Amino acid sequence: MQDMNIGLWDFALRLYKAPDVADACLALQEKSGVDVPVLLFAAWLKQGSIALSPAKTVQIIGLVDEWRDEVVAPLRAIRQRMKTGPKPGPDKHTEALRDAVKAAELSAERIELMELETAGLALATISDDSNRSAGENLTLVVRYYHGSTLDAGARRAIATIERALIGL
């Protein structure tokens, strides 16, 4: 295990702000349905040299699926819808509400990251598959959402995030 001293929230903020990472994460979210907090979690584990197995990937994602589906995703949908309407928006009056929804969405993602961090710290103390490489973590997560064959766009997005990890 290399460095799990930085918490997942702080790590996620740093990685997400790295050049091109936000665009890569959002592309994976929009085109493959990837849950960005889970993707950032997989990168955090990779930085700590903790490998995910396919079974652990499914288990970890299962810990936060309901939260994402019932809290995070609806907040995101409302925020995105408010970019173009419904009437009376979008205008300066509805923008304040949209900002509040965006803040609630971010808070919900932070709660999801806290749950993932707890699970990740437990993974750091045990290993169910010592032959796996942590280098596969991002690919495992994207494949879970996208399917077994990754298209060129998904591979490019993963490569962008992995390059950013080197600079952290």
List the keywords:
globular; 168 residues; mainly alpha; single chain
Description of the structure:
The chain contains seven helices and no strands. The protein is an all-alpha fold and 168 residues long. The longest helix is centred in the middle third of the chain and has 34 residues, at 92-125.
Summarize the structure.
This protein is mainly α.
Unreliable parts: none
Helix content: over 70%
First-last Cα distance: 16 Å
- What's the number of extended β-strand segments? 0
Mean pLDDT equals 91
State the major sheet: none
Rg, Cα atoms, Å: 17 Å
How does the SSE layout of this entry go?
Elements: H1 8-17, H2 21-32, H3 36-47, H4 54-81, H5 92-125, H6 137-146, H7 152-167
Helix pairs in contact: 1-3, 2-7, 3-5, 3-6, 4-5
